[in-house]
Every structure is written in structure tokens, then in C-alpha cells.
Amino acid sequence: MTARRFILSFVALGILVPAAWFIFYWTIGKAKPDILRWIMLNTPTHELLLLLCPSSLLMMMDAEDKSYWLPVITIALNALLYAILGWLFWIGIKRSRIVLIGTAAVVLVGWYGLLNL
Fold it and tell me: Mean pLDDT for each consecutive 10-residue tract of the chain (117 residues)?
């Protein structure tokens, strides 16, 4: 696998995760807010969403749920974040193990910080 394909697979995942959440939210969540509330409060879905899509924190700026650009920006930022992580993991796998260890450490510390907001 080339570096380009490796990074593009990370970018695809970075787009897929928030896009799947927004599709679920707009199709089921808006139609049945009780189900959405139950899922967000009674399951670890909210924490998982924060771990896989840290840029979803931007959605708090749209309390009235009227913005069309904010979800696009959220998806784009998440794809950029995943591209950077993919690039760093590629360097870590192919060239320098210290980059791989450092990247993994930064991701773990970032996840810990997100979960303790």
C-alpha cells in the first residue's frame, strides 16, 4: 500500500464517521427525539462520537440546529484531522517508530482530555 492510499483510507474514515452520525441524527433523531435522547444518555454513544469525531464539539455552536455549513465544516475538519493522523502513522510505520509511539501517545492523551471535559 502506498502512502497516498493509506492516508486516503484515513480520510475516508474521517468523513464516514461524522457523515453516518449526521445521517442518523437527521433521519431518526429529529423525527423521534425520545430515541435520540435515550441513545445519548443511556449508551456510551456520546463518548464514542467524541473519540471518533472530536470536531463534533463544533456542533455545540448551533444550539438551534439551523446551520447547514457547520456540519460540512465539522466533516471537513474531521477528515483533515484523520489525514494528519494517517500521515503520522504512515511515517511511524515506515520510517520512525518514535513517531508512531508519539502519535499514539498524543491520541490517547487527547482522548483522555475529551472524555474529561
Answer: 92 95 88 85 82 85 83 94 92 88 90 84
| Degrees to nearest 5, angle at CA 10 with 18 and 27 | 20
DSSP string of 17-73?
Answer: HHHHHHHHIIIIITT-HHHHHHHHHHSTHHHHHHHH-GGGGGGGG-TTS--SHHHHH
At residue 4, the pLDDT reads: 92
Pairwise CA distance, residues 75 & 78, whole Å:
5
60 close to 41: Cβ distance less than 8 angstroms = no
Residue type, 44: P
Predicted local distance difference test score (pLDDT) of residue 20: 93
**φ/ψ of residue 9, rounded to 5:** -70, -35
What is residue 90's predicted lDDT score, i.e. its pLDDT? Answer: 92
CA–CA separation, 88 and 13 (whole Å): 16
- The answer to whether the beta carbons of residues 21 and 53 sit under 8 Å apart is yes
